[in-house]
Design a protein that fits this description.
This protein is mainly beta. The protein is built from three helices and 39 strands.
Length: 524
């Protein structure tokens, strides 16, 4: 006999899933999402609205007619950024700890619009930073004197002739590695051991040609991975000063230099068919089984359909085990700009991700690194001249965060029985004053179905956060785990539950789970 009252518990987990048929998803994985925009799969479980961003430094960096920030790097307990100075065709490297940008170039870095700037930091007797931009010689900075910029051009204490216009740089086994230069785009040049100014073979410098156009290099453990247009290689130390070049993949390459990130003991990169793991690609081969982004392929495919290498940027947020990928397109407004967010989920078979989408963040370049115990995540804007800090505040520098979580059409274990919904018990964590709307969408929103109005979930509860609150001004308390109880109306064979938040001044919140009370009625 069927009980008059029944309940369905939905645990929010699994992230965004777009590659499963509606009946299976709503029955087997009701806690996954069909829409998960500006919500992140949280380490503690559930889906949490992401934090916002604010200006890292209130001073405008790019003060000339070219407002693009060409590169950013967290290093030397601050942030480096490369941008126009305001003087005609004068691009320079700047440094800030958050209270004004200082020119550390000492002289004009470029006389023409540069390419995208990329950096590597390492320790070689002292902390050092190297920058390349694909137009000029690499430069080295050691942080000891304002304007102390050393050109890596073979002059001074160096010997040999290094690449004149490298696009990529890395540090590998005590050597500075440069690649992507116009004279030999399929070669990687490694400096002499423990000397980043010497590029002569007599001193032990090496040039390795991989036979394909290089789009990025990345050091991982004791290996230098070389990502090309149509292939991937790895350079390993052979004997003494010799190196061996080994195949990783011969039929798949990388389409975005700045998508390459290390997280969870592996390298993630953007390939022509989606996001991949180097380890899985090497182990399984150049087939779809190696894809990390399989669950969100309907979203990824149009995102990478019209791609240029420099339009993508990425970063990791290690304390959250997150990978974030952004795409800049000048024809799309900032509020409509899309990206993806993946939370690492270790499995017995290797790494996998729970995914969500981002909307309203438009970096041209970004970087993240731990500064002491704090993880700093920054991005350079493509058109307004500022550097911003992610994971900061409750809005996008004053603009609202449009966040949406929609469940699949939940079948309540039988899609042929009509259900009358009575109540929703929503289990959450709030971090301050919140406001979100709950909508119930019956039967795939068929055109002849009347849908009930949405209901507001709001609270002014929540405490201040240690380290950011002001004594005597902020209200102190603890983070609350409230249960919101909402009466529901309407009936249908399936129902999706949609949570929408579009305010610019509300704190983040996490939706952990919810329980729906309903009564079954007639069978279809």
């Amino acid at each position: 006999m069927v009980s008059r009252w029944q309940s369905k518990v939905v645990i929010c987990k699994g992230g965004l899933v777009l590659d499963t048929d509606a009946l299976t998803q709503g029955t087997v994985t009701p806690g996954s999402a069909r829409i998960l925009q500006n919500y992140e799969p949280a380490l503690e479980g559930g889906y949490r609205r992401i934090d916002g961003y604010s200006k890292y430094d209130s001073a405008e960096l790019a003060t000339g007619s070219d407002k693009k920030v060409y590169g950013v790097k967290v290093a030397f307990s601050g942030v480096f950024a490369y941008a126009d100075t305001g003087t005609s065709n004068d691009y320079r490297l700047h440094y800030s700890t958050g209270s004004g940008w200082a020119d550390v170039s000492g002289a004009a870095r470029s006389t023409t619009a540069p390419g995208k700037a990329r950096f590597v930091s390492y320790y070689m007797g002292e902390e050092r930073l190297v920058m390349v931009d694909g137009k000029d010689e690499a430069v080295r900075y050691n942080g000891t004197t304002s304007g102390d910029q050393t050109l890596i051009d073979g002059s001074g204490s160096g010997s040999g002739t290094p690449p004149a216009d490298p696009k990529f740089c890395e540090y590998f086994l005590g050597r500075l590695c440069l690649a992507g230069y116009s004279s030999n785009p399929s070669a990687v040049t490694l400096s002499a051991p423990n000397d980043d100014l010497k590029f002569s073979g007599v001193d032990g410098a090496v040039e390795v040609n991989v036979g394909d156009i290089i789009v990025g290099i990345k050091t991982f453990r004791d290996t230098l991975y070389v990502f090309c247009r149509n292939s991937i290689y790895k350079i390993v130390e052979d004997v003494g000063t010799s190196f061996a070049v080994l195949d990783v993949a011969k039929s798949i390459g990388c389409i975005a230099t700045d998508s390459i990130q290390e997280l969870g003991g592996d390298l993630t990169f953007l390939a022509p068919d989606g996001l991949r793991s180097v380890a899985a690609t090497e182990r399984i081969g150049d087939i779809e089984l190696a894809l990390l982004s399989r669950r969100i392929q309907p979203f990824i495919k149009p995102l990478i359909a019209s791609v240029t290498n420099d339009n993508f940027s990425s970063c990791t947020i290690r304390r959250k085990s997150q990978y974030r990928l952004f795409k800049f397109d000048s024809s799309i407004t900032e509020s409509s700009t899309l990206g993806v967010l993946g939370k690492l989920e270790p499995t017995e078979a290797g790494i996998s991700y729970e995914w969500s989408t981002l909307k309203g963040i438009q970096p041209y370049c970004c970087d993240s690194f731990y500064d002491g115990s704090d993880e700093v995540v920054v991005f350079g804007h493509p058109s307004d001249g500022y550097v911003y800090q992610l994971e900061s505040g409750n809005n996008f520098d004053g603009d609202e965060i449009s966040a949406v979580y929609s469940s699949p059409q939940i079948t309540f274990d039988d899609a042929t029985i009509r259900k009358v919904l009575h109540k929703a018990d929503i289990y959450t964590q709030v971090e301050g004053s919140i406001e979100t709307d709950l909508s119930v969408l019956f039967d795939f929103q068929e055109t002849d179905k009347i849908q009930p109005p949405s209901q507001t979930i709001a609270t002014a509860a929540g405490g201040s956060t240690y380290g950011s609150a002001v004594y005597g001004t902020s209200s102190y308390g603890i983070l609350e785990f409230p249960v919101f109880r909402k009466s529901l109306h309407g009936s249908g064979f399936t129902a999706a539950f949609k949570y929408t938040s579009s305010t610019s001044d509300k704190a983040s919140h996490r939706i952990d789970s919810y329980q729906i009370t309903y009564s079954p009625k007639g069978r279809k």
